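INTERNAL AUDIT FORM
Audit reference: QA-55
Scope: verify that the stored structure record matches its stored sequence.
Auditor: D.O.
Record contents follow.
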Amino acid sequence: MSKKLIDTIQQIFEEEYQIQPDPADLTLQKTKKEFAGDYTFVVFPFVKTLRKAPPVLADEIGKQLMERIPEMVSEYNVVQGFLNITLQNAYWFQFLEEKNKDGVSLSFPTDNEAVVIEYSSPNTNKPLHLGHVRNNLLGAATANILSAVGKKVYRVNLVNDRGIHICKSMLAWEKFGNNSTPESTGIKGDHFVGDYYVEFDQQLKREVAEQMQRGVTEEDAMKCAPLLIQSQKMLKKWEEGDPEVRALWKKMNQWVYDGFEATYTRMGIEFEKTYYESDTYLLGKEMVEKGVADGVFYRKEDGSVWADLTEEGLDEKLLLRADGTSVYMTQDLGTAQLRYDDFHPNRMIYVVGNEQNYHFDVLKLIATNKLKQSWGETIYHLSYGMVELPEGKMKSREGTVVDADDLMEEMHQEAKRSTEELGKNNLDEDQKEGLYEMIGIGALKYFILKVDPKKNMLFNPAESIDFNGNTGPFIQYTHARIKSLLRKAAQEQIDLSRDIDKNTPLEEAERGLIKIIKEYESVVQNAAHQLSPALVANYLFELSKEFNRFYQESPIFKATDPAIRVLRLQIAKLCASTIQAGMGLLGIQVPEQM
C-alpha cells in the first residue's frame, strides 16, 4: 500500500512538476492521532524548488492522488505542509485477508550479508549472573531479528576459560576444597566453582590484612600476598602446559560447562559455535609476534609487547605481558581471525557491556591500522548499559551477584504467586507449572529487552510481573484473551475463512488496530537496522494496548451483524498472530490460556 502511494507521488512530481525527487524525501509517516488520515506526506522539502506555499502544494498532490488512484485513496486533508491521506476500506480488508491467509510472515528477501554475533562470553570461574542475562537476551533477540530480515546469522559464544581469574578458583579449590565435587555436595557445577572464586577473594583479603597489621602498605601487601603469587605461578604453568595444572583446569571447567548448559536451556539460548580462549590465544600471540617482527608493535626491555596508538588519538596498549602471557586483546585478535576464516562475515557484532567501549576501539584500530586485516572494518561493538537491582551494584568476587539460575527461579515463583492471586485458570498442576515458567521467564526477558540497549537499567522482579503495565505478562495475557475469543468463535461455528464483505463499515477502533498491525514489518526492519530489540518489545506493548481499546470499543460477540463479527474476529486473530511472531523474536513464548 505505502509503496504504491510513494510511486504515485513520485509520478506526480515527475509528470506535473518536471522534477526528479530525492528518494529520501519521498517518505510516508503515520498520521498523528489528533488528525484524520492513515498516512502523512510532508511537502516542505519541495516548496523552495517549486516556489509554492506548503498548503497549496499539499492540496495539489492530494487532488492528483484522488484522480490517479481513487480505488486506493478515499479522501485527504491538508494541515499546513502536511498532506494527510485516508485509504479506502477495501485496502485494509485486503491486507487483513492476505495476512490471515498467509500468516504473519515477513517479506524480506534473503540477502548475502553474513553476520557473526557474539554474546554470553562467560568466565569459567563463576555462574552466569544478572549481567549475563541482559547480554544473552540482547544477543539472542538481536540475532533473531537480523535473521528475520534476511541476514545469514551465526550465533557464537566465546568462553573465557583461561587466565588469572580461572587460576584463582582452581587454586582455592586445590587448597580448601578437600576433593569435594558438585556431585558430592549437590551444588550445580558453575555455582560450585564460583564459590571457590569467592573463597579465594576472602582468603586473599585476610592475607593482605595480616600484612597491613605489620605496617605494610595495602599496595605492597597485595603484591606479596602468597595466594596471589601462587595463582600467578599457576597461570604460568598452565601456559607452559603443566600436566597437573591442565588436568585440574579441564576437570573444573567441565563442572562449569555442565552448569552453563542447564542455564542456557532454561533461558532458551543457543549457539552455532562456541570458541574457547584457550584455543584462540595462541593464534593471537602469533599475530602479535608477527607484528613485532614487522615493526608495527614494539617490545620493551622487560619483554612485554605494546602497540603505540598515540597517532590514532589513543595511548599505548599492552599485548603481551613481560612473562609472555597474553591479555584479552591478544586472544580477541586470534578469535576474530578464526571467526573470519570460519564464516567470512560482513559484520562481526560483539554484544559486550559499555565498560569495554575502549577495548573494542583499540581492537578495531589494531586490526585495521596495525595488522592491516580486512576483517578489522567488520568489527562492531553492540555496547549496552549495566543492569542493576534496587539493592545496587553487584560484585562477583565478593559473592554479591544475583545468579541467573536464582533469578529465573525467583521469576517462576513470582509468576506463580501473581497468577494464583488472579485465580482465573482451570489448568492441572503440570499445566500450571508450565504456565508459571512461561510467564516468569517471559517477564524477565521482556523487562530486560524493552529498555534501549544503550541505557543502564534497574531490574525489579516484582514490577516485571505486573499484568497491567508495560510488561511481558500483560502482552501474554492479551494473546491468551484473543485465543479465548477464537475458541468461543469455533464453538459457535463462526467461519473465519470466509471473505470479508467489502461493504462492511470500518470503525475507528477497528481501523486503528489494523493500522498498527501493519506497522510490524517496518518495526522489525528498524530494529534490525538499529540493533535494538527494544523497538519490537515496545511495539508489542502498544499493539496489546490498542487491542484492549478495540475490544472495549468494538465488542465482538455483541455485534448483531454477522459480517461485523467476522471482521472483528479476523482482526483479533491477526493481532494474536502478530503478538506471537513478535514475542518469538524476543525469545518469549505466549500461552493459549491464562
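Auditor finding: record pair retrieved intact. The first helix runs from residue 2 to 16.
Action required: none
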